[in-house]
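Section 3.1: Structural characterization of target chains.
Under the original work plan, the team committed to producing a structural model for every single-chain target entering the pipeline before any wet-lab resources were allocated. The record below documents one such target. The sequence was received from the expression subgroup and is listed exactly as submitted; it comprises 126 residues.
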Amino acid sequence: MKLLRRQVWINFLGLLPGSLVTVLAIAVAFLRFYDQQDFQFLSAVAQPQLWSNRLTVAALLATLANFGVEWNRRNREGDRETEARERETERTEREAERTEREARREREEARRDRQEARRDRQEIRY
């Protein structure tokens, strides 16, 4: 249960930078292209140009964070694929070794059976 909760938070935090970039880009565009005449509540923002610049910087930082999250995710995914390939290779090697041991055991048993058959024939002769 604890692991599931942790995974949910990790997934949420992984989505956060990309979502934040979207919201910030919308806010930047809104502050850049509209003013008090278009929307009355923009009169509450004292300097829309300054806030637009600040939000642009915040959007760039969120974009960098999103890049880091995606980079990390892809690296983990690549590591998982590499580990899966290595496990498959090890399994194949173990299977080949087991098959080789079985074949060797069968050859040894066949050789022992032949030797016993020869002894039996020699005993019958004498």
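The two ends are 78 Å apart (CA to CA).
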